[in-house]
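tl;dr need the bound structure. longer version: we got a ligand (zinc ion) that a collaborator sent over and nobodys looked at where it sits. i said id run it. heres the input, straight from their email, havent touched it
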Amino acid sequence: MLVRRVDAPVLTLVVALLLASAGNVKFWSIFTHAAGGFSLANLPLLAGAFLIVVLFFNACLTMASFRYVAKPVLIALVLTASAASYFIAAYGIVIDKAMIQNVFETDAREATELISWNLAAKLGLLGVLPSLLIARADIRFPPGARGLLKRTGIAGGSLLLATLLLVLFFKSLAPALREHRELRFLLTPTNFIQAMHGYLRNRWSTGIVVAPLGRDAVKGRAWAGQHRKTLTVIVVGETARAASFSLNGYSRLTNPLLERQAGLINFSHVSSCGTATAISVPCVFSALGRDGYSQSKASSQEGLLDVLTHAGFAVVWRDNNSGCKGVCDRVKYEDVSRPTGHDSHCAGDECYDERLLEGLPELLRNSSRDLVVVLHQKGSHGPVYASRYPREFARFGPVCATNQFEKCTRESIQAAYDNTIVYTDYFLSKTIDLLRETAEGEGVDTAMLYFSDHGESLGENNVYLHGAPYFFAPREQTEVPMMLWMSEGFGERFHIDRRCLDERRNQPLSHDNIFHSVLGMLDVNTAVLNPRLDLFHSCIRAA
Ligand SMILES: [Zn+2]
């Protein structure tokens, strides 16, 4: 054989290079396309991304670089990676949980149909041959405590360098990865490690049993002897950051309409539960709070919308986003995000948030019960902010209209983002107008509570988009807007002291307050309501 004696760090680096290159041909072809094609100008970005992957693999492999461990791990990785990359390239599949399930639950006949000479050749060249070389190699591991130190140094150094490169290329990498989420399932071998983990976790976990919550909920004293119906609208914003609202002091006038809305209470210091929709939305509608939240706990327990149902409300979730993340599983759900024909509020395959308001008065008229409607906005979802609003809302410009941030100035990215806030301002103001008309014209007590799920980075310290780990997430990603509007009748019915609420507008609040405040605002009595988190608790006048 060619090489018999080899130093462990050299072998690790060679395998990392092999996996990153030959094992990921399809990944790089899609990534190159996502990054704007292969060109001289793009070369630093492509080289940077390749280096990040190599360094990351090298760090991971170094941590397994011990006698008796290294060989089986490297061989298993090389073999599975060669097979996975063949199937990805040949069938255009992605490796995810469902695919692993397919592999395990497919019968032998189906499996043989997938086997071909091409597969054999690829497995032999990229899998078996390197495996034989590894198996026969005499690997020299750095010995003792110094060896341990050396491994730690290599792994740590690789990760550090990868992180530095990531920061350097973040502006270009983030939108490409966000727009092409499939890349996550194409990068071998992390895709099948992740998929395997997901598959086994599903396999071993027993079916989720949803525990009841607040079954004791009843409407309180403020409801006695009332004949007027109520309509409460909860608007869940998307990617709106507090810092870009002129209501919160932003220098650009992004809230021209809301600033003129009489009776609007704007809360200026609200922090989010997470930095991504998939965390914030289930968290905010759960009774767990940020400290107690986990995905599994939230999905195995009823939430705010269930408690409202127990208290006798009709609850509807209208969605112009990507679903309610399990929050609305047991209430009525309406998806308005897809165009159905000649929709005045859709352009191409994009529907603007105004569509959430279509038919809302009819919904109320047809409801025999008091109604709580959740409107889930598309809001300021990136990276193509310019697609989120109709043309007449392009107040600031020039705007960045592509997902390739490296082609845009920071100013043009911000301008496009600010226009999404101008449109949200219009949407919220229109919601309030509608609720005011309904209150006056139809004798209904109405209210609107708005908050965003998380914020957004727009180039501060060269960080873009959102989803940073919470403990070091920049403020721009965790500080969210929140506001409340109530019709006069609504405030009177529930004896809400507006001046008292006004005094709380600059207090530090968070998503943790929302579960309890919605119940408090609607005078719902239940043991799960924590008065200390209820914004209205000390602001209710004695009847
Ligand atoms: Zn979100």
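gonna send this back to them w/ a short note. The chain has a mean pLDDT of 90.
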